[in-house]
Amino acid sequence: MDELLFELQRLEVTLHHPGVPLEEARLQALLHAGFHEVGRSGFPYDRPTVLSFLAEQGEGNGALVDVVSDAFAVRSLGPAAALLTYRSAQRQPDGTLTRHTLRSSVWVKTSDAWQLLYHQGTPAGTPW
């Protein structure tokens, strides 16, 4: 289970753009064709919307957000599916953390690789 946690955490953090914009082909490979999300805002987002947003971040059309994440945990949902949970926050230029969020992602193993099928962010009641 440790290997699975390490792999899914690595893939999830890749989507946070930790200082490295992602190419569209890489984004396409990470998000499953059936991907959808319920954002921190409570609004649903489909795959094309999320792909567009992430690609725009990588093109420098917006400042890359410094996302801090921790407390990763994984649960197997079967031989080819897993639930990844963690906490995240945005680091402001002064170093403070804001927008504390509890997150969950469902990853599925395809014939090629792990892909993100579903993601949800829920505002955390108190900072961690």
Automatic annotation (TrEMBL):
Domain DUF4440: 25-116
A Pfam family hit: DUF4440
InterPro entries attached to this UniProt entry: DUF4440 (IPR027843), NTF2-like_dom_sf (IPR032710)
Domain of life: Bacteria
Protein name in UniProt: DUF4440 domain-containing protein
Species this protein is from: Pelomonas candidula
